[in-house]
Amino acid sequence: MLGEQNRTVKNRWLALLLCGISLVGLGVTLVPQPMPDSILSGGAVWALAAFALWFLYREALRRPSCFGLKRLWTLAAVFAAVIVLGQSYGAVGSAALVKTQPVLAVLQWLGRTPLYAAGMALLTHALCGGTAPEPEQPRKAHPFWLYALILYACWLPYLYFIFPGTLSTDSLTMIMEAIGLRQLGNANPIFQTMLLHCFRYIGVKLGNGDITIILYCGIQSILMAWLLGVLIARMARSDAPRWLVTGSLVFFAINPIFPLYAFCVGKDTNFAMAVLWLMLCCHQLCQEEKPNRWNTLFMIAAAVLCVLLRNPGMYLAVLTLGALLLWTLHQSRRAARLWVAPALSILCAVCVFAGIRLMLPVLNVAPMPETEEYSLPLQQVARVAATHELTAEEAAALDSVLELDKVAGEYNGELSDPIKNLWRKDATPEAKAAFFRTWMKLAVKYPGTSLSATFHNTYGYVYPGFMSQIKPTFLIGRQRSTTEMDHLFKYSENPRCHLLIRFTDELAKNPLYRVIVAPGLYGWITLFAVALLAGRNKSRYLIAAIPALFTLAGCVLSAVNGYFRYSMPLYLCAPMLLWLCAQAKPIIRRKHQ
Predict the structure, then answer these.
(1) d(Cα 263, Cα 476) in Å, to the nearest integer?
(2) Which of 75, 339, 553, 584 fits a disulfide with 328 by CB distance 3.0 to 4.6 angstroms?
(3) Which has the minimum average pLDDT: 22-31, 132-141, 356-365, 402-411?
């Protein structure tokens, strides 16, 4: 009894100490910012913040099994470092503010690390802290179509402002390729181009391009609501915490990401749905004791759609299904023949991928530009060339494939497209090989500059609240004006869309809103979920999270920093990742029971 009282007193003092450290860390900033307007005085705001921090640390210290997890502290330290560095890069495009204000940077990092660790500890306890055994029978839940109807009803007001829907720039390019105004290319997946061509043909036959957009967005939004309804219904029937089920429904209903991309003709929304569908199929197989024919068919369809709807989708599908195949071939499960589903799915995905590659030359389809995969080396080389003096040999190797004299002027730390445009299309294989050898040498010679280039081009995917100013975040209204194809495909713009644009721009001034809609939070959730699942003895749940982790890795290697549409799978998969954590009970919890 006395020991328990001493521990309580000790925890209170420790909570006060951590509270003070975090207040200092939150109070200092590398970039001076004006105080936002508030009905409370500055002192009242800090008093509320102090109380909230003390309560957070007090509750976290009551759960040492979660607050003491080393992997959470490591992740918290990484997140805090990203935030501190991100402030500097957002202001001056480099780590200069951290170098010139090292004391403030260290204070910020020290104050934020325990704060993030405590938050993740409480989330871990909320997800996995229950001691009740798993129910023998699934819990009762509403049918999936009811959840889907609720979501669709919440999305419909957005349609009032953007009806018949939004046509993305990539979709406009694909339509122009399909009707012969441009050469067919595989920069955008050829399947998606043909799909849009079918919808365009139907729309033109029935009236105009608006019907094309209505049909596409109507079917896509219904499928998204259906898929998310299935996810919520499965969560509700499992042993997932009730708050997670309700919170997921609210999240899908009120976050503007979902309706705005559900009513947008683009390649990113349907690919994100295919990724979530594949995760659901993998999770379903991991719960089964014997093969399920329908789930096998669904898994094959999801894998094939991942291949068809995104050029790197092949790697996502094979990596995920390969891990699932190895798990199902485990000695205790081989007899159940559960391995058949992932094996058939891999076979179908590979056959479709090979068939597309064989078909492209026959149809005179231009391959995907090689520079689409070179964002990382191009950005690193460009930053080195713009910052350091190159030797004659290095400059010659780079100039053989790039217009080197333009690199310094065109370089943009958050967008690799300007450097890609300097790539010489007539570069020989020998020149390309010399370029990549030089890139690796420069990365070793100037590691700090190379890492700085990569961080500058990617930190928005793990920096909550970062909203890119380079490309549109939400796709609302006409994305590109063109009269080139009006006689073949004409569509209208809803005049009310500008009201929605102004409304969302006004909301973007609110920090909490930016955190909710920007991709950084969902990069955090992905890494948090993987860190928890990696520490459990149920590897099947980690397998189901591979598509989300692959998506985040793809975002890091992408051309644009913090681009919303590249992160679409992370938005859709975030509640499922938390659900996987809730199902995989922590080993450390069992040790204390």
Answers:
(1) 10
(2) 339
(3) 132-141
Find out whether 129 and 589 touch, Cβ atoms under 8 Å. yes
373 residue type, one letter: E
Q: Is 151 exposed, middle or buried (0-12, 13-18, 19+ CB in 10 A)?
A: buried
Q: What is the DSSP letter of 264?
A: E
d(CA 145, CA 149): 6
Three-state secondary structure string covering 168-200: CHHHHHHHHHHCCCCCCECCCCHHHHHHHHHHH
The answer to whether 187 and 289 have CB atoms below 8 angstroms apart is no
Work out the widest C-alpha separation in the chain, in whole angstroms: 85
> How far is it, in rounded angstroms, from Cα 351 to Cα 518?
36
pLDDT tens-place string over residues 245-265: 999 999 999 999 999 999 999
113 backbone φψ class: left, alpha, beta (φ>0; ψ -120 to 50): alpha
CA 302, 229, 260 angle in degrees (round to 5)?
Answer: 85
Residue 541 near residue 584 (C-beta atoms within 8 A): yes
Confirm if 515 and 509 have CB atoms less than 8 A apart: no
Do the Cβ atoms of 105 and 98 come closer than 8 Å? yes
Sign of the Cα torsion 176, 179, 181, 184 reads positive
Taking the C-alpha atoms of residue 533 and residue 593, their distance in angstroms, rounded to an integer, is 20
CA distances from 265 to 166, 221, 479 (A): 6, 10, 11
> Residue type at 153?
A
DSSP tag of 391: P
The pLDDT tens digits of the residues spanning 106-138 come to 999 999 999 999 999 999 999 887 544 455 556
3-state helix/strand/coil string of 298-345: HHHHHHHHHHHHCCCHHHHHHHHHHHHHHHHCCHHHHCCCCCHHHHHH
Pairs from 209-212 (Cβ < 8 Å, separation ≥ 24):
209/489, 209/490, 209/491, 209/492, 210/164, 210/491, 210/492, 211/164, 212/265, 212/489, 212/491
532-542 pLDDT, tens digit each: 888 766 678 89
CA distances from 111 to 25, 116, 139 (A): 4, 9, 42
Name residue, tokens 């890494």: 527
